[in-house]
Amino acid sequence: MLGVGVNLFSGGSTRAEVTRFEHQKLRLLEEREKLVDDIKMEVQRNLLDTATARQKINVMKDALQQAEENLRINRTRYQEGVGTATEVLDAVTLITAAETNYYRAIYDLGRAEAAGNVFPRAGF
């Protein structure tokens, strides 16, 4: 006794499997492209954050110098009897806020630079 088993419809299942693998390949390529775009956007955002933080430090440095000059003027006016103690206290409050903003800007720069060092010299 001899028997031969031939499946006449096996070509359809093979074709379906090839199609499934092609769809899977396309999906993986799209995911890869999305990941590359996400990484590029993250790097660009970190570069912009770093540049913004550097500019902010310059602005805050100028604001701090102005607050110091304001305090100097108000102290001189108070010592001459022209200004009030309240004006001096306001100037001290202003300089404290300016110092806080300046140091916060320095912190922001450090944070932005640290975030940018996740991919050092990655070529992006």
Walk me through the structure.
With 124 residues, this protein is mainly α. It is built from 2 helices and no strands. The protein is rod-shaped.
Would you spell out the secondary-structure blueprint of this structure?
Blueprint: H1 10-79, H2 85-116
Helix pairs in contact: 1-2
Q: Which terms summarize this structure?
A:
124 residues, rod-shaped, 0% strand, mainly alpha
Percent strand: under 5%
CA(first)-CA(last) distance: 70 Å
Low-confidence segments, given as residue ranges, are: none
Radius of gyration, in angstroms, nearest whole number = 33 Å
Mean pLDDT: 86
Largest sheet: none
Beta-strand segment tally: 0
Q: Quaternary state, please? A: single chain
Shape: rod-shaped
The H-and-E topology, N to C, reads as: HH
Tally of helical segments: 2
Provide the helix percentage: over 70%
SS class = mainly alpha
Quick description:
This protein has 124 residues and is mainly alpha-helical. The protein contains two helices and no strands.
